[in-house]
Amino acid sequence: METIADTKTTLGTSSDGDDDAGGTDMSVESREFKKEADAINKHLGTTNLWDYLPFLEWFDMSGAKKKVLAAMSRQDAFMQRLIDSERWKTLDHADTDANGGEKKSMISVLLSLQKKEPEVYTDKMIRGLCVNLFTAGTGTTSIAVEWAMSLLLNHPAVLKKARDEIEASVGASRLVTAEDVPRLTYLRCIINETLRLYPATPLLLPHQSSVDCKVGGYHVPKDTMLIVNAYAIHRDPTMWENPDEFRPERFEDGKAQGLFMLPFGMGRRKCPGEAMAFRVVGLVLAALIQCFDWEQVDGVHVDMTQGPGTSFTVPKAVPFEAICKPRAAMRNVLP
Ligand code: HEM
Question: Is 265 in the pocket of ligand 1 (CB under 6 A)?
Fold first, then answer.
């Protein structure tokens, strides 16, 4: 029998934003974008004296504002290059779909709208929208995958149950697809339980009261910055039984209905990417579980310490590391 070498795999981003380990298979464009995003994140999450003494913003003594603005301008130029290249593709195929009938990219959809309403869909607006979605949608989902894999490695029974579900629903003759994910209900419980214990953005995004109001008996004046501690809510022992335990079963058969959790926020400013996040995180986890056998490195529990946080997200302090081996059953499917 052919032997398949075990591979030590590292996923994700350490809390200092330095992603050497996970970045080796990234495209040049992805690396460039990530470099600027990391440069911005590094400063966005820090406390600035001008949060307390607003006049200090004018002096920018730490130089943080200057660095963030410079990185944002490089990110903007990068996005404009993507838009221009999509525009040229559209010109080349003036009479047909730029992608030859394939699914259109978001930029190409926005460029079609630009033709109809140029004053609304300006390049500046498209750049802003794309940067916003890239920034909000990439770090959060990769962090969620990393926490989920770490939890699975430390809970082999849960990992096995997830594998069994994929075996029963998809089998081993083909790779799991995005269409399979909604049927993998136990996998969804795992994602929910991961987001409960390790919400990618534990304090959501800061909100601001638009009018004077009362919250939980406290008077909140207009224009106050409000921060919701989702992390604490998700581990509230008055609500959740053994809140620190990783137990995806608590979400089975709608059992957790009515229990309060908000990893995507709530209300008008709730994350618009929730459905996409479940699809992407679900597909990545399902493929990793379906295709590989996983083991802890030297039998040591995966470190679950949380990092100090980069801007609004909280990744692992130590990136996820594990031994993975392609499954013999999937040899015909894996490239
Ligand atoms: C596991 C993955 C994700 C998590 C945990 C997450 C979480 C959140 C949270 C907590 C907020 C702030 C909500 C609030 O302040 O009340 C937010 C906002 C946002 N998210 Fe996500 N998100 C994820 C994935 C995505 C994806 C995949 C996209 C898009 C591709 C996305 C796009 C956005 C945008 C644009 C906002 C700002 C919405 C606004 O302020 O109106 N997110 N997300």
Answer: yes
Answer yes or no: is the ipTM higher than 0.90: yes
Distance 13 CA to ligand 1 centre (A): 18
pLDDT digits (tens, 9 = 90+) for 7-18: 666 665 544 444
Ligand 1 centroid from CA 117, angstroms: 27
Summarised one tens digit per residue, pLDDT across range 94-149 is: 545 555 556 788 899 999 999 999 999 999 999 999 988 988 898 899 999 999 99
Question: Cβ(272)–Cβ(307) under 8 Å?
Answer: no
Side-chain half-sphere CA neighbours of 183 within 13 A: 11
Averaged confidence pLDDT in the chain: 87
**Residue 311: which of 71, 133, 46, 132 has the closest Cα?**
46
Distance in angstroms (rounded) separating the CA atoms of residues 327 and 19 = 27
Q: pLDDT of 157-175, one tens digit each? A: 999 999 999 999 999 999 9
Is there an atom of ligand 1 within 6 Å of 282 CB? no
Atom of ligand 1 nearest to the CA of 138: 27
Structure tokens at 57: 């913003």
Among 105, 198, 208, 264, say which to mutate for ligand 1: greatest number of ligand atoms within 8 Å of CB: 264
Determine whether the shortest distance from the Cβ of 302 to ligand 1 is under 6 A. no
CB 85 within 8 A of CB 94: no
Contact yes or no for 190/284 (Cβ under 8 A)? no
Taking CA atoms, 266 is separated from 73, 125, 321, in Å, by 31, 25, 33
The average pLDDT across 40-69 equals 79
User: How many Å apart are CA 116 and CA 109, to the nearest integer?
Assistant: 11
Residue from 13, 140, 231, 268 to probe ligand 1 pocket by mutation (most atoms less than 8 Å from CB): 140
Tell me the C-alpha distance between 209 and 158, whole Å. 42
pTM exceeding the 0.90 threshold for the entire prediction? no
